[in-house]
Amino acid sequence: MQMGVWIVLMCIGLQGSALDCAGESLQSAGLPADVILVVDGRKIDTSRVKPADRWAMENAFFQHRRRAPSGPQDESVLQRLEENRRCEAVRAAITLAVQKDLLEQARITVSGEERAEYRRSLLRSATPGEVAAELRAKGEALKEALDAVYEKGEDPRAVFERMKSRLGYSDVDWGSDVYMARDAERRKEAVRRLREEMPAHIIEYHSRPDASDEQIRLRKFKQKIYADPELAGFWTPPGRLISDDIGAVYGRWLKAQVAKSHVWLDNPVWGERCELAKHGIVVGTEVR
């Protein structure tokens, strides 16, 4: 785990579902509470989505500027940041809905051997038990380090120098964690998730034979799109310095599919505020 704990806690990563991970990102971004989304006749479930709060926006500001916000100028930056996060959440929700429909239509199957190979690829460096144990150890180290700063009043830099081998990430990420841990209740929750929730999730995930099916289907679907000669138009002309790896080609193709979809917002102001048309998303005037 080579990054700040709060970033890690946003998404469990390869050990979790790809769409669950995206859902966590949407949740942290804060989809507008007054938005009802219908994409190609399906209402998008936003029940898990929580509005981004002030604490989250200040953390995002700190991640970008490496300092705490202060003054009217920073306040306007925070407001723009919140607006951008909400718009990103709207666009991501639409894109995920289109991708989900396309995957269902493709009817891609997963074999037992593919599951076994995918699981082997995840476990090349460690077993689920070892990963869970490492997370618990990181949680203990984080609690000890943050307690030293907030309960004992020690200097954060001195704490990091003493504990950097146990924390396992850079002083920059440690600085972010110290700032984000300024709220005592959130500090306790982060430690709890790292010591208890994430290890339990990893063990449970690897105990389910079909847990990786979603990731495997998406990977096979991307490979299918990438290899289709009829989709050569999504490759860039020779000489242009634009990536043509599988992710880039699939991303351009998916964006084109999103542009063909029918999107309806019960609150059309978000379509204008988020400039969805600029991102190839056409918002209709009625539900279909």
Kindly describe this structure.
This protein is mostly helical. It has twelve helices and three strands; from the N terminus they run H-H-E-E-H-H-H-H-H-H-H-H-H-E-H. It has helices at residues 5-10, 18-29, 54-65, 71-106, 112-122, 128-150, 156-167, 171-180, 184-207, 213-227, 246-260, 269-273, and strands spanning 37-39, 42-43, 263-265. Helix 2 packs antiparallel against helix 4 and helix 4 (71-106) packs across helix 11 (246-260). The protein is globular, with a radius of gyration of 21 Å.
In a few lines, what is going on in this structure?
The protein has 12 helices and 3 strands. By secondary structure, the chain is an all-alpha fold. It has a 3-stranded antiparallel β-sheet with strand order 2-1-3, with helices on one face.
Instruction: Give the amount of beta strand, in percent.
Output: under 5%
Would you count the extended β strands for me?
A: 3
- Morphology call: globular
The major β-sheet equals:
3 strands, antiparallel
Treating each run of at least 4 consecutive H or I residues as one helix, how many helices?
12
What is the string of helix and strand elements? HHEEHHHHHHHHHEH
Oligomer: single chain
Give the strand order of the largest sheet, numbering strands 1, 2, ... along the chain: 2-1-3
Mean pLDDT reading: 78
- Class of secondary structure makeup: mainly alpha
Q: Distance N terminus to C terminus?
A: 45 Å
| Unreliable spans | 1-30
> Taking Cα atoms only, what radius of gyration do you get, to the nearest Å?
21 Å
| Helical content band | 55-70%
